[in-house]
Amino acid sequence: MVKAARFVNLVLAGLLAGNEFGTKVAVHPALERLGPPERVRAEQEVTRRYAAIMPFWMSSVIVSCLPVLALSRKTSAFLPTLVATACFVAMLASTLRGNVPINDRVLELAPEADDEEFAELRERWDRLHTLRVALNVAGLAFLCVGALRADGRR
């Protein structure tokens, strides 16, 4: 049971961290090469797509940490798993308080709107996204440490 819970948790966290890292180093740098109206439209399309899947995905990573925590309570795997869970909770809080309001505003913009506002929004979003990537990668790393420490004893 512990191995199955940890496996699901690691797969979900790995996919999330990889997705966020890929967005940081590939998707958004590519979008930056577009002209302003095209970039706004592209950002809006990407935002709509992610808005449809990320709330469930981010939450599922946190939820999948809970049984792993419970099942590893009296093992050396508990502390790194707890730290990992805290990283994912902090990532979700940062997302909800920072990135989502920016996303909502970007979705309201007309593609030919004020380029200066869009640039400011993207700069703030990118800083917050860098934080999210760091928290996701740290969370995944701590989950891996927990998995390596797991000894199956209670």
Layout of strands and helices, then pairs:
Blueprint: H1 2-31, H2 36-71, H3 78-108, H4 115-149
Please explain how this structure is put together.
Helix 1 runs antiparallel to helix 2, helix 2 runs antiparallel to helix 3 and helix 3 packs antiparallel against helix 4. This protein is an all-alpha fold. The protein is elongated and about 55 Å long. The chain has four helices and no strands. Helix content is 86%, strand content 0%.
Secondary structure class reads mainly alpha
Spans of 5+ residues with little confidence (pLDDT < 50)? none
**Mean pLDDT, nearest integer?**
94
Largest sheet: none
Number of helices: 4
Using the alpha-carbon principal axes, give the shape.
elongated
Alpha-carbon distance between the termini? Answer: 13 Å
Helix content: over 70%
Total DSSP E strands: 0
Element-by-element helix/strand order:
HHHH
Rg over C-alpha atoms, rounded to the nearest angstrom: 18 Å
Q: What portion of the residues fall into strands of 2 or more residues?
A: under 5%
List keywords for this structure.
154 residues, mainly alpha, 4 helices
How would you sum up this structure in a few lines?
Helix 1 runs antiparallel to helix 4.
